Amino acid sequence: MPIQAYTGPFGREEMKHLLRRTLFGVTRADLVHFEGQSLDQVIDALLNVVNDTTPPIKAYTGGPDNAPDPDALDPLVPFGSTWVDTVRYGANDEELTDLTAARIGSYVWWRTGLMVEQERTIREKMVLFWYNQMPSQVFSIFNPRLSYQYDQLLRDQCLGNHRSFMYDVTTSGSMLVFLNGYLNTANAPDENYARELMELFTLGEGSGYTEEDVQAAARVLTGWSVFEQDQIGEIVLPFVAFRPSQHETANKQFSAFFNNTVITGQSGAAAGPAELNALLDMIYTKEEVSKFICREIYRFFVHGEIDAAIETGVIEPLAEIFRLNQGAPDQLRLVMRALLTSEHFFSPEIRACMVMSPVDLVIGALRKLEMPRPTPAQFQAQYLFWRDVYYLTAYTGQEILAPPNVAGWPAYYQFPTYDNTWLDSATYPARNNAMLGIIYTGFATSANLYHVPSRDLEFKVDLLALVAGFSDPMNPNAVVADAADLLMAVPISQTVRAQLKTNYLLLGQQSDVYWSDAYEIYMNDPNTTNMTAQLVPNLLLWLFLDMAQAAETQIH
Q: What are phi and psi of 526, to 5 degrees?
């Protein structure tokens, strides 16, 4: 049965719902950009994903804080240039560790920046989905080049063919290190990756595979490793290689779940790729793969709970699309298109039903409030800005590139709470503090940075400029309504809007003229001596600080 396509109206509210789930926050500029387009046109644009990023650069220095020196740390890489093609080096373990940590920081800030500076496509959210579904913890791997390569793999294939994707993930240096694949040898098979390949990456726990299947798969995967030295001991960029001498050449017997398949043991340089392909061919014959992946996608982009009706009406039709296009290079794009254009996706019960992840909350707020940001010419400030955004998301409960375990973030698998996991007595104050920091404090750089254009900068939300773009800034009713439309995923009542207007824009007064006159006076002369007009920036600040803490601002 095909999934039911959406045939209802596609207006502003439908647009906002779609963009909230595919971007990090919806800005006024996003809505203007897509205004008047059909659902198909918007979906085409969102799914038009290419990997055109430039690599992370050296924006870090060594030396004391009062005399930063780029040559004191990683001197082989010029300041402002990329480090990804330069080998790791150091005269001792301490120097190597310091260099590695600096590059990892550069990579993590850069990765955060890609989300902050996102294009109007699903790319950044899709890549974050795969980091959750097939995670690798950047600080556990502790190899920035491998982490960068894994990122590029996810970006290249985020909407591609899943089986091809899975082959490349399996043989990626990042995953080989994270799940001990590089330790998996014929003499000491390591089952870690084989187990997660079945349980978390393809089939799902309880789908029918056995412990013996995991053991057999581990033997198939023996021999792959990661190297950072060549044959004569010279340090080189890390690379993955298959070692025939460490591969188990015996036949591998699988259970009745896999139709008692036997993967014939092979030897020689081609044995590793050949047996891996045979293993994946066997796994992808099972319908459980398509259903499992579609459930994972659904829980990330739509909602955590999947009942029998959703399983029948949404998951199974999506899984059929997955299977019918198993050889298509854009298999995942076809699945996502079907989901995002479905009747179910636009149904009332799905709109504003999810608690925002910390990344959605923090980065979405930066974008919605149009916070000024450093330019590429201020690249050291740019990386420090992205660093602070990363710390804010970690503070609110989601450390980018470091899910708590190989299962990803609990919000996408923990029954029955799912996304409610993001919001509890510990995280709610942190989420509010993050929003207050964005609106009230902003970000700043010190005066003693090495990079002169990056020194002594301040980036704060300009609420006056934001409100100046509202439909009627002199009308306090319009200001409250437009602010609610920008920040909140569900409408607030006329009673609540009136309370917000009176409490903040009117300071308890009853006449709208209190705001209108004060706003007009202040905008004409910010240095006015009119005491009421002088309050205008604070009135807006108090209004937005209150609205930023509302429950309606925490969902999408």
A: -60, -15
Paired tokens of 355: 């608690």
Q: CA–CA distance from 441 to each of 23, 436, 545 (Å)? A: 25, 7, 11
The two structure tokens encoding residue 358: 């910390």
The pLDDT of residue 435 is 95
| Residue 372 three-state SS | coil
| Alpha-carbon gap, residue 379 to 281, rounded angstroms | 46
Beta bridge partners of 227: 239
- Alpha-carbon 280 to chain mean position: 27
Separation of alpha carbons 175 and 185, rounded Å = 16
pTM of this structure: 0.96
Q: How far is CA 70 from CA 81, 183, 355, 375, 378, in A?
A: 11, 36, 42, 20, 16
- Retrieve residue 544's tokens: 């937005």
Give the model confidence (pLDDT) of 292-328 as tens digits.
999 999 999 999 999 999 999 999 999 999 999 999 9
* DSSP, residue by residue, 471-519: S-TT-HHHHHHHHHHHH-SS---HHHHHHHIIIIISTT-S-THHHHHHH
- DSSP assignment of 464-478: HHHHHTSS-TT-HHH
Containing 239, the helix (H) or strand (E) segment is strand 235-242
Q: Calculate the CA dihedral of residues 231, 234, 237, 238 and round it to 10 degrees.
A: 50
Cβ-contact 389, 363 below 8 angstroms: yes
CB 548 within 8 A of CB 487: yes
Asked whether residue 493 carries a pLDDT value surpassing 90, the answer given is: yes
Q: Rounded distance, CA 244 to CA 164, Å?
A: 23
Q: Which residues are CB-contacts of 60 (< 8 A; sequence separation ≥ 6)?
A: 70, 73, 74, 102, 105, 106, 383
505: left (phi over 0), alpha (psi -120 to 50) or beta: alpha
Name the amino acid, one letter, at 103: R
- Residue 26 CA to residue 368 CA, distance in Å, equals 6
Q: What share of the chain is helix, strand, coil (3-state, %, to 5)?
A: 55, 5, 40
- The Cα 168–Cα 183 span in angstroms is 18
Angle at 212 between CA 210 and CA 218, to 5 degrees: 110
Amino acid type, 231 = Q
